[in-house]
Amino acid sequence: MRLRLVALALLVGALAPLAPPSPVTPVTPAAAGRTFGDDPLDDVLHWAAAERRCGLTTNKLAALMLAPTYPETGTPTGQAPAPMTLSRWDNQAGLHSFATVAGQPRAFWHPGVGMWQFDSAGLGAPFTAAQSIDTFVVSAQTAATMASRWCTNRSLAYVWAPWFGCGTSTCRTIFDAIYRRATDRLVGVSRDTGVSSRGGMTRHTCTGLARPGEFTCWRVDPALAQGYAGFTASGFGPSPLTAPFFVYAADGREYRHWLRTDTGYRRGVWASRPLGANARTGLTWHRGDGLVDLGGGTGGGAAAGGGAGFDDVAPSAWYVDALVWGRDTGLVAGFDDGTFRPVAPVTRAQAVAWLWAEAGRPIPSAAHSFTDVGRHAWFADALSWAAGEGIATGFGDGSFRPAESVSRAQLAAMLWKRADRPPSAGAGVFTDVVPGARYAPAVAWITEMGYAGGLPGGTFRPADAVNRAQSVSWLYAARRFDDVAPRAWYEAAVDWGRYRNVVTGYEDHTFRGAVASDRAMTVSMLWALMEAPGGSPPHGFSDVTAGDPSVSWAAAAGVAGGFPGGTFRPAQPVNRAQAVMMLWNVAGRPDGAGLPAFTDDSPDAWYAPGLAWAAAHGIVEGYADGTFRATDPVTRAQLTAQLSTLAHTEAAWAPGVAIPDTVVFAA
Amino acid sequence: MRSAPRFLIAGTVLAAAALAGAGLVAGAADPSPGSDLPELPSVTEQVAGLYDGDGCLRTGPSADDVDCSVRADEVDDALSHGGVREPRLLQGFSGSHWLGQVDGRGPRVLLDSVALSAEGSFTASGLARNEGTDVLATLSVTVRLVDGAGAELDEVTVVSPVRDIRPGEPVPFALTSPVTASAVDHVEWSATGGATGDEAARALSWTPFWERPVDGEPVALYLYRDGAGPRPHLLFGSVAAVGGTGVDRPEVVVGQVSADGRLASVVSASVRGPDGSPLARLDAGATGDALVVDAGDPPAGGETMVWVQGS
Q1: Are the C-beta atoms of residues B230 and B279 closer than 8 Å to each other?
Q2: What percent of chain A has pLDDT over 90?
Q3: Which of A33, A125, A556, A652 could crosslink A617 through cysteines, CB 3.0-4.6 Å?
Q4: Over the stretch B4-36, which tens digit does the pLDDT of each residue have?
Q5: Is residue A362 reached through a cis peptide bond, with omega within 30 degrees of 0 on the bond before it?
Q6: CA–CA distance, B99 with B119 (Å, rounded to integer)
Q7: How far is B58 from A391, CA to CA, in rounded Å?
Q8: Residue A107: predicted pLDDT
Q9: Taking CB atoms and an 8 Å cutoff, what residues of chain A touch B74?
């Protein structure tokens, strides 16, 4: 049931499935059968029983209803259609905020909603998005529509004609696999208990401009979609995917609000349509949040209750900050009963899905080769990515064993591998971690970095299953800086640096890549690169804390000198030429490799040897106009990228220099 | 060289209309008498049990599982009421430009909906509206084409393909003249109504199901299958007889309105039965499907207006 959504069925068939948010209860797909949400199946059966007529049985009408949900949502065998499915085919300007495609793509009004894809111009006309997601509501309309058509003509093709995705045989094939006419039974339909009637949509209490007093509003966060969440993939369709939004109805109109906290935009956005209007041409847009979520106070809020909005989490729980972060970023979701279940174990599948989600759900370069995970598994993309990155490894028999619990050592190893195996001071801290164990470097690193702690008795309990609270806490502690996007040009460099304590952020967990790096900051990073050498004679500068080890080292090693009058000027920005020379000094002043090709430098410049060296090794790059701009301040992002390149370029180091462990030469 | 002929002609029309008193009402002074809206059956009647006795939407099998944020009567009201620029879902109609309160002065051409050809033969398409208080069996639009010397080049009258036009209802028209468009200096519009119509012939509902763009995915529907060559635009939906009696020879008329509000095209399709044949009659409570085929896609950002009618 969709308008202008007709290319989707083929499109999704070519896409690998994507991971839904955890938790997903593992299900065992019935042979040649289908998986469906547990509560949604009850809803279907309820309305099938109520609407059956003209010779239809409850089970037959239910099977008729189930069949279109798979092609309409692109759900493969073994996965349950997501009640929250949002159409991605329509990309008309009118669906974008203020009808401007290039404006705010995360404030996008999806016109087709739900597992039967009710469209605002069709059967979804009288329903809000929240109602079209609710499988109890849409099952009623679907059952009535199908039963009515059956009474007109007892042909399956006629019954399914409103659902374009059914095509000529798609729904018939599914129907035949799940319904036995002779016995009037539904067969081969597995229930996924991780999919509820509202599909991950959460109830909130709101106040707002469009409706007086407090009222119920619903938060629709695609990252929390239960069931097959292929629609959240970046390439699923031509339209953008909306940021989380709140939806409700008032005075005959449907309202959707995108709060600043959800979009990251400077101002909130909200829109409405008269119920019955085609959203493509019937939206009215407003600026501002226009809504207050009383449940959480912001767009990331959850229903009132325990800590982070979960009924079984104390507000003062040690991991509550981590849980709020995990919830707001869509990394973790709770269960339908409002709980988080903090001590429940985490499966290996969930672990790779979480790491993948935190990495921004990158597209894997190649499919994994594990023998026990199909290409349509909900975490297949996550696993392919993790395998490609060397984060996830399997067992000797070629399996991954996705349903097994992750041990504390395994999760530590995954995080360590994600960080490209940084060095650590060594094992031996914990009484139950064997120094030579395969996971020992990971345990040492993750505890030294403060991402995870030990347990009473000086133990780490590496073989214990890591629980949900611990997992979220570890991920939170090791999370990327809040202002470094997953695909920022310097993101990899920052990751390399932060996992090795070469670069640090600010107290608010930002990196501030655009900030100019001052002299104190710069020598501190260089000092950290060289593994914080001690034993340097005191620097003697009058404007730096006595005994500052980084400045003392820089002065003693000839990396950075002082100014007349005995000052170091720690707050003075470092320009690009000065930064190059400091790096060159750290690398042992290797010989250059000819003159660089920048149009604004000179072979006679004081920094020429360093620039020649840096340019030859790709440590510095110029601007698009061919200039180097020596006197421009070097930003923290630029400096970090330069450090990372140096750390990954063996040839850039002078012979005889003691190369520190923070340096990782590319294999 | 003439520039922006559409704008020039429209401006001329306004002036000419004011002089000629051709029924081009620019605004209604007194909204009374009102028109009774031909509302569709309540949403509570569409699915038994989906709304409870208070008109709240049921969201679960328990009596406590209800959503009272919008009650059924509010939904009904929202579907059928709205501003003149907002869409309404009414019996036999889906779209905007319905005037809830008519002034009783009869039909008029909605000039801002008219699209004119700039080259070749003169063509025009647009909307006219019944702003009288009676149901009109037909609505005719007449255009008089005048050259720069004031001489009449042609006068063309067309009847809207939509019949039995209720008070406040807009209807499409499209006309052509052999006169070369560039020879026309200005045009004069008028609209007239026919005899009293039969509102019962419009007691139909329209529910669109899907739309297939030009050259989109091939379709093999029980009443249509793409052949070789270009694949046209398709709009598939269902028509139900919602009145107390049946409707003869039901059909769907679709008008595509561009983003700037001008009628770009009008096509029609029969309502068909399960065997794919046009229905001679749609009995009360019965449904049929319609597949509207158009060679071109609708204008981007525009509106699809739909009329459903019998004879």
Answers
A1: no
A2: 41
A3: A652
A4: 222 223 222 332 332 222 223 323 333 333 447
A5: no
A6: 33
A7: 47
A8: 94
A9: 251-252
Position of tokens 């025009």? B124
Chain A residues lying within 8 Å of B210, measured CB to CB = 1-3, 5-6, 122, 162-164
Who wins on pLDDT, A616 or A296?
Answer: A616
The whole-angstrom distance between A110's CA and the closest CA on chain B is 15
- Those residues whose C-beta lies under 8 Å from the C-beta of residue B288, and which sit 6 or more positions away, are A152, B238, B239, B250, B271, B272, B273, B279, B282
A553 vs A547: CA distance, rounded Å:
10
Q: Please tell me whether residue A637 adopts helix, strand or coil conformation.
A: helix
- A136 and B209 within 8 Å at the Cβ level: the answer is no
In this predicted model, what pLDDT tens digit does every residue of A583-623 receive, in sequence order?
A: 999 999 987 666 667 888 777 888 888 988 998 888 998 88
Q: Residue A157: its chain B contacts at CB < 8 A?
A: 222
User: Does the interface predicted TM-score (ipTM) exceed 0.90?
Assistant: no
**Alpha-carbon span A362 to B301, nearest angstrom:** 33
Please answer whether residues B33 and B104 qualify as being in contact, where contact means their C-beta atoms are separated by less than 8 angstroms. yes
Cα-only R_g, chain A:
29
Q: Do the beta carbons of residue A308 and residue A329 sit within 8 Å?
A: no
Contact B86, A274 (CB under 8 A): yes
CA angle B224-B228-B232, nearest 5°? 55
Report the SS3 class of residue A37: strand
For the packed helices A58-66 and A135-152, what is the interaxial angle rounded to 10 degrees? 110
Residue A118 has φ and ψ, to the nearest 5°, of: -65, 130
With cut-offs at 50, 70 and 90, classify the pLDDT of residue A562: confident
Contacts of B189 (CB under 8 A, 6+ apart): B13, B17, B22, B24, B109, B111, B114, B141, B142, B143, B144
Question: Residue B212 and residue A252: Cβ atoms within 8 Å?
Answer: no
Q: Would the CB atoms of A251 and B300 count as touching at under 8 Å?
A: no
Please name the residue that has the structure tokens 């003149």: B84
Q: How far is B147 from chain A (nearest CA, A)?
A: 38
Q: What's CA B90's distance to the chain center, in Å?
A: 11
CA distance A123 to chain B (A): 7
What pLDDT, on the 0 to 100 scale, is given for residue B91? 97
CB contacts < 8 A (A, B) = 146
Q: Which residues contact B259 (CB under 8 A, 6 or more apart)?
A: B299, B300, B301, B302
Cα(A361)–Cα(A87) distance, rounded to whole angstroms?
Answer: 20
Alpha-carbon gap, residue A453 to A440, rounded angstroms: 14
Please tell me the total number of residues recorded for chain A in this structure.
667
R_g of chain B, CA atoms, integer Å = 21
- H or E element in which residue A215 lies: strand A211-220
Mean pLDDT, residues B57-75 taken together: 87
A54 touches chain B (CB under 8 A): no
Measured CA to CA, the distance from residue A494 to residue A636 in angstroms comes to: 10
User: Is there a contact between B87 and A94 if contact means CB atoms under 8 Å apart?
Assistant: no
Distance CA B247, CA B307 (A): 14
